[in-house]
TrEMBL record:
PROSITE patterns: WD_REPEATS_1 (PS00678), WD_REPEATS_2 (PS50082), WD_REPEATS_REGION (PS50294). Coiled coil: none annotated. This is Uncharacterized protein. InterPro entries: WD40/YVTN_repeat-like_dom_sf, WD40_repeat_CS, WD40_rpt, WD_LIS1/nudF_dynein_reg. WD repeats lie at residues 366-407, 408-449. The keyword DNA damage does not apply. Signal peptide: none annotated. It comes from the Eukaryota. Residues 100-120 are annotated as: Disordered. Keywords: Repeat, WD repeat.
Amino acid sequence: MCKEVQGALLDLKSEAYAESLYENPRIMAYMARQHDSWYTFARTDHLVEPEDIVFVSGWVKTPANWATAAFRDTSKTREVSLKGQIWQFVGLKLSASTTKEYSGPPMHRQGSKYPKRAGRNSTRDQCVFVKRIKIKKRLGIVRVLIAGAGHDKLPPGNSDPETVAGVVAVEELLDTEDLGNGGALFSEGQGKAIDPLDALLDYILEVSGADCAVARDEDIEAMLGGDYPPVDFSTYLRKSQPPVVVEDSQYGSISIPNLMYRGWVELQHRRITSLDLQKWPYIREEGSGDLVFGQVQLPSTEKPGDHKMSKSAYLEFADSTAGDTHMPCFTLSDDGKLLAASWRTVGSDILVWRTSDGLTLQHLRDPEYTDGVTAVAFSPDGRRLVTGSADETAVIWDIRSGKPIMRLRGHTYSLTDVAFSPDGVRIVTGSADYVVKFWDAATGLPLCTFSLDSPVRKLVFSSDGSRLAVMLEDKIALYDVGAPIVQLGAIHHYNVTDYRSVAFSPTGDRIFICAQGLVGRLYNTDSCKELLRLEEPNRKIAVGTFSPDGSSVASIASENRRFMLIVQDASKGTIRFKERIWAGGTAVAFSPDGTLVAAAGEMNVVVWNMKSGELVADLREMQRVSDIRFLPDGRRILFVGRTDRMGIWNVADTLRIR
């Protein structure tokens, strides 16, 4: 990251897998031990102070064709060009093609090819650090970045400077206003801003009495829940007073377990503020999500292959008036901030919650509804909600006011599903009357109607909004939803019925279909031709989905009466990852960045690291989980029960415990 004439560049010329080291105290202890040796190494060629060293805690896995370049202000000028696809590190996107002039002779480091080792994929044997850990002693402040690379392990724990590989560069806070101008890595603003990590280091030294403080980007993410730090972060810290712990009398740091516990306490004693009431006039504690503690199995950090039991908290949502026998229909807003659900009972209301704290924002009730709500969907901007009912109508709601905007009439039987198009321009409704209708979302006027030969089960748009899949009992009807709307064809096999799930690839050119709890197949969405079969004579596919990059498919399968999570190559079907599920198997989901994959068993939710295949956490003692979804932050998982419960679990809490 560069500011004016100082900084460092990391150029990835091919695909890279981003990974993180979550809140591991051993990393911080490692940094405290190695700091002096790093300084010894750095000062052999560069004018730096002990406080000028930054360790970087996260990494990307990449082939050898990467490069780093570091610059420092001298009399010479050098032109540097950065080209690459879009990547995301520490919340920043590197994109486009950029050329800038920088003064000073650059230092360069290129990736190195290592000998192929048994069991290792040599095409991604590089480990390039891209996330920060800063250290500060009583008389210094950190300003400089060390970018190191090697195999996927930390440098050896000794003081020999020859074993510590890297380049050193002066580091400045990146001006986020420059991210959208095509030069995502460069900031040319003249103003000086306080790095939030520097403010956190000062706070730790101030309250702990330690001679050394260590702080990480993940510390700030844990405190703020992924939001941007306030402008005056120092004042925020002194008001919020995050807990600090001193480890081994060596260094002070933020205590993540205590921070988690404090967050749980705050959820149990949440309060509605005046700002909440200004934005959500009908916000209330009644019907809000409850904090529930469940048993979670974690991998042992001391002995590989062993596990330990711990507790983890999640927010549980229910409608106390709906009884205990109805599975809710539900929807998440695109930004993951709102959750809406109804329990399908006669006269049932629609509840809208805030996912961050579980408070009830709206209690929608339509006096004209004589039957239960059967389907709900948010508009892409999260301002409207469309609901379908057994009374043959759909209603569009303004969420802020809680008032119905318009009613869509035209079906002759109960609605089974509703959906907004990804651009928010259209609404689609499906019904048990064998009909799919398209509506103008602004006026409520009908656009077109398609009659089918069986009741509609589910409506699914591709992420780019170009395709719509309509799931029926015995086929999948595909539509091009351009202008005009055209039916492309239908996917149907004479010996396959009871279609149960459908998922588009990220580009919308392929579709993954599961049927009968037996069949899992991939099709081309233009030609409706079969591309790949995942089922085998001894393998039955229950449900599946695509990875965010479209290169893999994950499915729940049963093999010889054992339920498995299987991740396969989406082109060839080659198995990349396979793990057993404790009991049953009902749903599967990838995190938005593809680093985690989760599966729902009958009584648990299990999460694995997609790259390493290691267990992350197994949340147990659930009540018949039927569906799971990652929220957009990639840290929280929504799970839905077959009876009257839903929950939001922050799996990042378990990563920090580890």
